């Protein structure tokens, strides 16, 4: 596995592989890898000749008071895990390498960002868009892999790729979970022992919503209240949001329809970790 830290090194590697007609699968991450990231890498390995993974904690997507400085980092561990998952090239740039100068243009996402985490974190997806546009231009992948745990991010990325005509297939990978249902996340290490036990109830709350829809409940307000009640009764976490939208448009819906998809999404703040999770329901039944 090649580990590169500069844009020039990466460009050279990409050029040589493109010249040979090889397909490139790309897995962008912020590091502190877990099984969810490795699942993306393994999917990329199965579908491409060359697998590129990036590890970059992007300052532009962190707001004031958020956890940029304390975001977990472990380059040595990540390098070993990436190699074990079949990554061919690991790109680990510095902030100075990715942002050598202040941006000369204003990158602003205006669709699909006024709900869920986007509503609570103004400017977050602008930062995501800025770094992904840079990375897509550097890696020039045929396919890029993203986990549906961050379903709003996936919806935003689809918009970026479509609007800017990137010739990239976005491959969505289902959320990877612990045995008790908790979505795997780098932030889970911040949970206390009791919080870790409580956190498994987030998925159980989503499952209750899924069951209610399957049994014929159509009111999104009633389903949201069902989820909130379960979380409040089962955990000490503070509910940030429980919301239902059409997916991937993220437009409001008052009642479930039998056509299309919907997302049930939650965010819950524990003492030192804010956890998100969701289920996407295909309503074509």
TrEMBL record:
UniProt pathway: Cofactor biosynthesis; (R)-pantothenate biosynthesis; (R)-pantothenate from (R)-pantoate and beta-alanine: step 1/1
Classification via CDD domains: PanC
Gene Ontology terms for molecular function: ligase activity
Catalytic reactions on record: (R)-pantoate + beta-alanine + ATP = (R)-pantothenate + AMP + diphosphate + H(+)
Residues engaged in binding ATP: 30-37, 147-150, 176, 184-187
Annotated binding of beta-alanine, by residue: 61
Protein name: Pantothenate synthetase
Gene3D superfamilies the UniProt entry points to: HUPs, Pantoate-beta-alanine ligase, C-terminal domain
Gene transcribed to yield this protein: panC
Function: Catalyzes the condensation of pantoate with beta-alanine in an ATP-dependent reaction via a pantoyl-adenylate intermediate.
Residues reported in the UniProt entry to bind (R)-pantoate: 61, 153
Additional information: The reaction proceeds by a bi uni uni bi ping pong mechanism.
Organism: Heyndrickxia acidicola
Keywords per UniProt: ATP-binding, Cytoplasm, Ligase, Nucleotide-binding, Pantothenate biosynthesis
Subunit structure: Homodimer.
Primary localisation category: cytoplasm
Localization terms from the record: Cytoplasm
Entry EC no(s): 6.3.2.1
Family: Belongs to the pantothenate synthetase family.
Chaperone in keyword set: no
Keyword field contains ATP-binding: yes
List of catalytic residues: 37 (proton donor)
């Amino acid at each position: 596995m090649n580990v590169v830290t500069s844009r020039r090194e990466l460009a050279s590697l990409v050029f040589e592989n493109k010249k040979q007609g090889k397909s490139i699968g790309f897995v962008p991450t912020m590091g502190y890898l877990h099984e969810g990231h490795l699942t993306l890498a393994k999917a990329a390995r199965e579908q491409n000749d060359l697998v590129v993974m990036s590890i970059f904690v992007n300052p532009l997507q962190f707001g004031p008071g958020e956890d940029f400085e304390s975001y977990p980092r472990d380059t040595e561990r990540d390098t070993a895990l990436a190699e074990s998952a079949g990554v061919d090239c690991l790109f680990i740039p510095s902030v100075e390498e990715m942002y050598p100068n202040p941006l000369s243009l204003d990158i602003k996402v205006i669709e699909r960002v006024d709900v869920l985490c986007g509503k609570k974190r103004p400017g977050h997806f602008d930062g995501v868009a800025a770094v992904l546009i840079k990375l897509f231009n550097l890696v020039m992948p045929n396919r890029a892999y993203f986990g549906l745990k961050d379903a709003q991010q996936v919806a935003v990325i689809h918009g970026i790729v479509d609007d800017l005509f990137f010739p990239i297939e976005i491959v969505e990978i289902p959320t990877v979970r612990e045995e008790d249902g908790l979505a795997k996340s780098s932030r889970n290490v911040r949970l206390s022992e009791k919080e870790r036990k409580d956190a498994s109830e987030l998925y159980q709350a989503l499952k209750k919503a899924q069951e209610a829809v399957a049994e014929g409940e159509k009111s999104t307000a009633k389903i949201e209240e069902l989820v909130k009640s379960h979380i409040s009764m089962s955990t000490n976490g503070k509910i940030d949001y429980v919301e239902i939208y059409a997916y991937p448009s993220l437009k409001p819906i008052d009642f479930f329809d039998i056509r299309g998809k919907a997302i049930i999404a939650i965010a819950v703040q524990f003492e030192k970790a804010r956890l998100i999770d969701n289920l996407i329901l295909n309503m074509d039944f």
